[in-house]
Amino acid sequence: MAIRVRLGQDEVQVEPGGSAQIVASIRNEGDAPDQVALEVEGIDSEWCAIPIPSFHVAPGEEVQERILIRPPRSTESRAGTYPILVRARSLENGNSGVAQASLTIRPYSMLTLEIAPKRAIATPLRKRVPYELTISNFGNTEQTVQLHASDPEDELVFELERERIPLAPGETQSVLLYAQPRRLPLLANPVLFSFTATARSVEEPLRSSSAQAQLERRGMVSPLVLGFLAVLGLLLALWAYTRPLPVEIVEFTAQPAQITAGETTTLSWVVRNADKVLIEPALGEFNPTTTSSVQAQPHATTTYRLIARNRYGEQIREVVVIVQNAPEPPAPVISKFYAEPPQIKRGESVLLRWEVQNASELILTPPGGLKLDPAMPGYEHRPSRTTEYELIARNAAGKSVSKKITVEVIDPSHAQIVSFTGQPETIQAGESATLRWELFNAVRAEIDNNIGRIDPKQGELTVTPPTTTTYTLTAYDHEGRPVQAKVTVRVETTQETPPPGSP
To answer: What is the pLDDT of residues 147-162, one digit of tens each?
Structure first.
């Protein structure tokens, strides 16, 4: 038993990241059927894709199979020609047939260039500034890179550690680039120069990568600094000849000086020659030219200190605020807690409403212990399922009371009742009416009052109710969720006319 392999082409070319196809013809030259496995040797197995790696071949039959070659677009897919073997191996007796071809990986190139730092400073004391250029070859062929730097204003001089660098596929190298301003005056304002570094392939001049950086030129002293120093000197001279004025606290009072817990008092002051005043404890710092009082709400009897300061010193004065205990606040009350509506469909919102008294804080769960202002009339929420809500009302003393309600969430049915009517709507006793319906997405439907199952798409039937009757149609979707509609047929009873002369 023999297996013969023949390839549709002897040479295959492919670019990394692309794909190529080889057609292999496998012939069973034996006299018995065989199960054959197709394999590719000589290249990375991850590069190959065989849609049908194992197949049945009858005696004398020839089968054609496709082999896809997909080298990745990476430096591992080196450019060059690789011999490959296509082997068809019998799974019955181990015999195999082989055919040879060559795979040519086309070259591609990709260069990247980075520069660090992006900005540097040159001064008369540090004229020559180094930058690091990092060049990477992400192609699949060796590249010789030519480096170059330039600035559009031609105000900088550049010096490269190396101008040409050979890079193997996947290799990264770093080179120092030195930049120096052509002119460095001692007295000058800062000037910023931008420049561009370029890495270009010698083999493929159209392949290049650039990076930009900046060099700031500074003089020893700028005119702005000289002006600032002159003004500073003048201010120091004025300060030296100006005598400081001492801080004085004329008045520091609390009105009222005795309060009940929870009330506020007003701290007022009059100061002279102060740059700022500080009220302790924890009331803050104030500008005495714009602020002369502050509100305070101490929880216990407190001694407040006024500290008045300027650059030469400070003065301190104290005042005591007496705090009496407040009466016990009334207990919180939840007089109403309800939902509008108490039953919703999934995806709809519910409005939770309440009426509370004597509460300083409300906590609603869910969602997650949300704190609410007691003055709010309600809160809107969108529950995903039937939910029990708890409202907790708490007063200023920490006492609390709670109330719970449940909002039912109904998962709406996919079934729809397009129409459900009864004609005529009013009949006489003994007469009949026709019920008609049209449904959508229903898998089962029924009508009560002993009618039972009906066509889940559309239909009609005749009913003769003895009295006024309401018929309920219920349709179910594929998950058994119901939807209903009602029709009422009104039955009127005809009264007989009494004979003449009867009482």
So the answer is: 999 999 999 999 999 9
